[in-house]
Target: Methyltransferase family protein
Amino acid sequence: MNTAKFFDQLADVFPGDPQTTDPLDARWAQIATDVAGYTGPNELAVLQAAAAAMPDDEAYLEVGTFKGRSLCAAVQDNAGKDFYAMENFLEFGMQGLQARAELEANLGKYAGQANVVLLEGDCFKLMTDRTLIDKPVGVYFYDGEHTLISHYLALAVVEPLLADEALVLIDDASWPVVQKAHRLFLAKHPGWTIERTWDAAHADDPRWSNGLHALVFRRPAGTGRALSKRDEALRLYQARIQDRVNTVAWKAVNKFPGLFRAGAKVFLSRSRAIGEDK
Ligand SMILES: C[S@@+](CC[C@H](N)C(=O)[O-])C[C@H]1O[C@@H](n2cnc3c(N)ncnc32)[C@H](O)[C@@H]1O
Model:
């Protein structure tokens, strides 16, 4: 993926600075209205432009699909390209068939012509199965779980799957917890740069939701595709222990939503504070 070309092409997507102007195409605001979800119209415009700039011999990978808002936008005018989406149907009470049916209905409406493969399960397990995606990943959008370890692993675990030059878009990146994960990861992994930071002015900013950061990975010559021992140990912890904790916790959240909202206010407020919330 020629990432420099993608950044140049954004000039055709927004009438001015993407940070402060609405996308020229009204479709992104319409999808944001029609499909329940957590991404803003400017993010949707960037995702679609990224998929459009991606060559056909590379794949687009999304983690955290929910009801399909971000994916429905990314596939627009991108028929013939390959899209993979990983979702474990865990958060927000997204249990079982009902959640899947809602997602599939949205994809049926907006992504009928696209090659979309929905991979159900924990992304930190799925991404290590090298048989699932048969092309290098040129564009990767991460919008899954938002903890320090999961955001660190979101980069570590995908690196072996990436094309030699790849665009990595991370949602909710205005949150301090995400930026800390990026600092920790980039300090230990060569080849990564942060190219754009479209930050939210405040929580749930109407254009950028909670912020989108664009990273670029250029594989340094001679780099292997195995995780370091430390990263693999973190992944095993996340996939084997934290995943079970999350499953129990989300079941409890679904039973006692009020209690959860009060707890989240206390435990998450600092790691997710944006702008005047800080
Ligand atoms: C914020 S939502 C995604 C929003 C969506 N991209 C949109 O545009 O509306 C996050 C999703 O990530 C999923 N998720 C969280 N952790 C995951 C994991 N380890 N593997 C796969 N999916 C995960 C959740 O079930 C949830 O549906």
